[in-house]
Amino acid sequence: MSEIAAQLERYRRGAELLAVVLTGVFGEEEDFAVAPGKWSIRQIVAHLADAEMVGAHRFRQVIAEDTPTLIAYDQDAWTRNLDYARRKPKQSLETFRRIRAENYELLKGLPESAFDRAGNHSENGRMTLRALLEGYAGHAESHARQLQEIREEYKKVKGKK
Questions:
Q1: What is the CA radius of gyration of the chain?
Q2: Contact 130, 49 (CB under 8 A)
Q3: What sign for the dihedral angle of Cα 58, 141, 7, 9?
């Protein structure tokens, strides 16, 4: 399996990984945060859905345009101003899954040479399609680990009550 094929498979599996980690989450667990100012499960899943939409746009810009500018965004402002504290985790997960599946279908059909195409990120500088793919694959994985840690902490706290 080529490096790109392996990255694409890793990227594709991110949606399944999140779905497994979130199995059985409901009620007050959705809003549990490990500390004040930390994101809850609800907020993280909403963030993942919105970040995947941003990724969809970035992937398409790099594929279709010559050296596009990829604009950074303030994830904390999005969390506050896009009402992540009220978003429905199941809906956010479904949005993430749908967009990731569409992105995967787009990306898997590209020739390997397309992954050398690049854009200029407003904070990170030059980013190839390959780097974007790797970054978004890792994004779902790191938040899946974070969600698992939150769930484990919730069980400890709930067990003490």
A1: 17
A2: no
A3: negative
Separation of alpha carbons 107 and 8, rounded Å: 8
Quickly count: other Cβ atoms within 10 Å of residue 118's Cβ. 19
Q: Report the interhelical angle of 129-160 vs 3-22 (nearest 10°).
A: 20
Contact (Cβ atoms closer than 8 angstroms) between residue 137 and residue 7: yes
Residues in the chain with pLDDT values less than 50: none
pTM of structure:
0.95
Instruction: Give the number of C-alpha atoms closer than 13 A to the C-alpha of residue 57, restricted to the C-beta side.
Output: 12
CATH code for residues 3-160: 1.20.120.450
109-127 pLDDT, tens per residue?
Answer: 999 999 999 999 999 999 9
Distance, in Å, from the CA atom of 103 to the CA atom of 161, rounded to the nearest integer, reads: 43
